[in-house]
Amino acid sequence: MDIKGFIFDMDGTMVDNMMVHHRAWQRKLAELGLVMNLEEVRQSIHGINEEILERLFGERFTLEERKRISWEKEAAYREIFLPELKLLDGLSEFLQSAFEKGVVLGIGTAAPLENVDFVLDNLNIRHYFKTVVHAGLVSKGKPDPEVWEKVAEGMGIDLEHCVVFEDSPTGTEAAKRAGCPTFVVTTTHTREEFEEFPNVVEFLEDFTTIDVVEVLEGFYFYKQKY
Fold this sequence. Notes:
The protein folds into two domains: about 5-15 and about 85-220, Rossmann fold, CATH 3.40.50.1000; about 20-85, Putative phosphatase, domain 2 (DNA polymerase, domain 1). It has a six-stranded parallel β-sheet with strand order 3-2-1-4-5-6, sandwiched between helices. Helix 3 (about 50-55) crosses helix 4. The mean pLDDT is about 95. It is α/β, with parallel strands linked by helices. The chain has helices spanning about 20-30, 40-45, 50-55, 65-80, 90-100, 115-120, 145-155, 170-180, 210-215; strands spanning about 5-10, 105-110, 130-135, 160-165, 180-185, 200-205.
């Protein structure tokens, strides 16, 4: 592969925050009368917030009500997570190395703009990324590949020259549909949950064991065919 761009999911991939999201969702859903344990939340809560609420509650809430509920949940998440906010181990060095080597970097996330700004600005990493696509910029959430298509367009690189970094089966499915080899960060899901995805080339606990040059030179792709 002629790799020119790295595309990152954010939540669970760049920052280990998914359990914070799950706890915030669990509390908010309970307020709405839907009691779920954390494992049920982990399995069912994925994608854009308004889509999640529509999937769980049907037409119970108007679009404006879904937006308000989403805002309340995300505000609670940011308050809880701020004292713990940090990049996954090794990612700061990985981003700097990729940036210095001229790799074009982008982010494609189901998070709302406020959460993207919360991460990028508090961690001072916005300058690494040529483009960032958040939930407000797509009409269809993952597993639809729209988010990756928009990121690649903003990066000015065809998807066939990009690799994706993800943590969820839903995002990995979106990457598969986009034709992108995928590195899966196992912060939230187990390896066994990705058995059906031929686009997964490597599992990572964090970014301390992955080298930018080895990615660019195809070290991880010998057993894969794209």
